UniProtKB/TrEMBL annotation:
GO MF annotation: an example: RNA endonuclease activity
Keyword terms, alphabetized: Hydrolase
Metallo-beta-lactamase domain mapped to chain residues: 13-264
Ranges of residues in domain Beta-Casp: 269-394
Pfam families from the UniProt entry: Beta-Casp (PF10996), Lactamase_B (PF00753), RMMBL (PF07521)
Name this polypeptide is given: MBL fold metallo-hydrolase
Family annotation (SUPFAM superfamilies): Metallo-hydrolase/oxidoreductase
Keyword ATP-binding: no
Keyword field contains tRNA processing: no
Length: 480
């Protein structure tokens, strides 16, 4: 069989791997949106045989899609796959189906806004004068494509071996990281020989709020492993409750301040709200207003609430005692845009949780713009920020920022904690790989990471006895 790396190759986003069996059965593992800038995409092993298409292969010849989890850099191009001719199923866990539906519908709504802007009267007039027709983005899908895709999702249970084709079986193993996230084990028999390949998906952390700990893949011949934090160790040793309580005390209690937390709506915000709920119920947190400024977060929280049985024991016990994981007296979900804008200047100390987590678009960008020069405001960064984003620039101490076409002086306090990062760090990744015997494992492929992170992680694995470690380029194919 052959494995081709069509995404998240020497970069973080766009996960997409094509596994081709000897009988021409083709499995696509993940089909994510690529958010890397154009100059980051030049490191490609092979030119696409379909240079004018979104996908570097004929979508109609794919037989099956396996989805590790809902995040858009893993799921975001699935509607386009159907638009371009795919007719098969998408296998994933039930929570992944629920969260993916929310994310894809939201993406389709944003795409409709992009389309409306492209087709606006002013734009059309401008392009007619230039005698050029505005080309639509290749990745622009709408509600119909999302509906077509979701009708073909088939939820599977964790740790149940499922036959997908003659001599081919698939098993989903809990990965932590996000509700429903999975490692994927594929077993194939070719010419009487069994071959096994494991895909890590995104590897979570032990003891993460709400989520069960990552499971263990059985012994495999080949391992595709993420390496997002392959060269980093999480810095905070405090519990999420202690770390968050400390920040709130200093920013909203000791001074009458405003705390803004940029946070991804799916996964990260649920961990934050659950932790705040625990602080209010168990640690006598003062009655400070908490604004969850994301309709997407509200919908995602409902999916978590429906899947209590798939959360960790602590969360299940908390639910039993308090009747809700997320709702508490001072929590206000914000839906309408005009209300969202008004809370940026809320008169009393408050906490605003809003997306996106990297402060790149979304409602939080407005909140940051309104408060970046406010010395009584603290902006708390709690996760990975890609280079070039506003979050990254704040993390790196930039003293002036251009936000919404205006230069702003950074007078707000900038803090960061990593206790809410959903990715395992270097030690977690090493532990995941070390569940595999270096004598049995034929090859390790490192994906989903910046090149320096991958190279450092490769050296770390080699130092503990692993060989044949590859860092594939985009488009590179390996015979397994």
């Amino acid at each position: 069989m052959k494995l081709t790396f069509w995404g998240a190759a020497q970069q973080v986003t766009g996960s997409m791997y094509l596994l081709e069996l000897d009988d021409d059965y083709r499995i696509l593992i993940d089909c994510g949106s690529d958010f890397e800038s154009g100059d980051r995409k030049r490191n490609t092993k092979e030119a696409s045989p379909f240079p004018n298409a979104l996908f570097p292969f004929d979508a109609s010849v794919i037989n099956l899609v396996l989805l590790t989890h809902a995040h858009i850099d893993h799921s975001g191009n699935i509607p386009n796959l159907y638009r371009d001719g795919y007719e098969g199923q998408v296998l994933c866990t039930d929570p992944t189906y629920g969260l993916t539906a929310i994310l894809l519908k939201d993406a389709a709504m944003l795409n409709q806004k992009r389309l409306n802007a492209i087709n606006s009267a002013d734009n059309q007039k401008k392009y007619r004068k230039g005698r050029k027709k505005k080309e639509l983005p290749k990745d622009l899908y709408l509600e119909k494509q999302v509906k077509d895709a979701l009708e073909n999702f088939v939820p599977l249970a964790f740790n149940r071996r499922f036959k997908v084709a003659d001599q081919c079986f698939v098993t989903f193993v809990p990965a932590g990281h996000l509700l429903g996230a999975a490692h994927i084990l594929i077993e194939v028999w070719e010419k009487g020989q069994k071959k096994t390949i494991g895909f890590s998906g995104d590897i979570g952390r032990k003891g993460y709020p709400l989520l069960i700990d990552p499971g263990v893949l059985p012994p495999v011949d080949y391992l595709v492993c993420e390496s997002t934090y392959g060269n980093r160790i999480h810095e905070n040793n405090l519990s999420p409750e202690a770390a968050l309580a400390d920040v709130i005390k200093r920013t909203c209690v000791d001074i009458p301040g405003r705390l803004i937390i940029p946070s991804f709506s799916v996964g990260r915000t649920q961990a934050l709200l659950y932790t705040l709920n625990k602080l209010y119920n168990e640690h006598n947190l003062p009655p400070i207003k908490v604004f969850a400024d994301s309709p997407l977060a509200f919908e995602s929280s409902r999916v978590y609430q429906r899947n209590i049985r798939m959360l960790n024991r602590e969360a299940r016990e908390f639910q039993e005692e308090n009747e809700s994981l997320f709702d508490f007296e001072n929590l206000i979900y914000v839906e309408k845009t005009e209300v969202s804008r008004s809370i940026s200047n809320h008169a009393e100390p408050c906490i605003i949780i809003s997306s996106s987590g990297m402060i790149q678009g979304g409602r939080v960008e407005y909140h940051v713009a309104q408060n970046i020069s406010n010395p009584y405001c603290t902006i708390l960064l709690i996760g990975y920020c890609a280079e070039g984003t506003l979050g990254w620039r704040l993390m790196n101490g930039q003293t002036t920022l251009r936000i919404r076409d205006k230069d702003e002086q950074v007078l707000a306090n900038i803090e960061k904690i990593d206790v809410f990062s959903g990715h395992g760090d270097r030690d977690d990744l090493v532990e995941f790989v070390q569940k595999q015997s270096p004598d049995h494992l034929k090859r390790v492929f490192l994906v989903h990471g910046e090149t320096p992170s991958m190279e450092a992680f490769k050296e770390t694995l080699e130092s503990v006895g692993y060989k044949n470690i590859e860092i594939p380029q985009k488009g590179q194919t390996f015979e397994l």
